[in-house]
Amino acid sequence: xxxxxxxxxxxxxxxxxxIFVNMSCExxxxxxxxxxxxxxxxxxxxxxxxxxNNIDFDRVIFYLDGKKQDNKGESSFKMSLKGCKLGKQVIxxxxxxxxxxxxxxxxxxxxxxxxxxxxxxxxxxSYKHNKKSYTQGLEFYDNELYETTGLRGKSSLNKVDLKTxxxxxxxxxxxxxxxxxxxxxxxxxxxxxxxxxxxxxxxxDDFKKQKEFKYSKSKEGWGLTHNEEFLIKxxxxxxxxxxxxxxxxxxxxxxxxxxxTKVSELNELEYIDGMIYANKYKKNTxxxxxxxxxxxxxxxxxxxxWKEIRKGQSLDSEDEVLNGIxxxxxxxxxxVTGKRWGKIFEIELIKNN
Length: 353
Known about the structure:
The protein is mainly beta.
């Protein structure tokens, strides 16, 4: 009996020793990834992976935003930020040692390499607009104007006569729906809702609902437009999402940044000549955004237009602001309006010298 206990004790001690040795082997490596927290687009940054106890390791591979970097086998090198997306990115080092590997991650925020240009504008023409329309989406399709309006119990999809302001066709949504931005792609009208976590698809011909879709990664629906490949969606943050037009799943996103900070509360969207034009919530502003990297290329202060509207009607300065950008591809003309504005303006943007 004593021998049995003695053997059990030896086995236990041996197991403890093995565990201790394994733990020692695992914990003797203390890796440190060094990288800046902020950097500028197009610059080069110093990246290094070191071991605190100067113990050799086999090799290390670096990644930026999931893309493998060419460090030429070196554990310290200069990483180029040319062609990167802006915003919050992740630098990852995968280090290999003793037939094992370990990931170490650092966050970095990439800012624009220059401040946005400031554009001016001039008013070319103006047209009547329904003062009851709480505009959320505005778009031309085959030379005809369509609009979505918001607020619960008042949300609608409208086909509008630009010259008279008359609503030619209209459907109203359920009282619990707060409709948001919309865009027209492949003869279908894709419409977002604000906080219902879903959107709708309607036929352009008869305004009949084709289907519903849900958001999976972006929680809210704000603005919507499209290029020839994706639907492009804002969600109230600095992120702009690119959606598969058939499944409506979020495929990728960009983050909008200046040379100083992120730009959030992006609202109604329009895609014009390879750029994303956006309104900013509670601001009389148009932002021009590079869809490849999220760089805020230019800004247009439209306060003068808001003041022009106020000559003929009272407006809530916090809420009833510019929201609605529509570009007519057939004529090359640009139109804007706002929430409950009594006019739609044809404008021309002017680049300052």
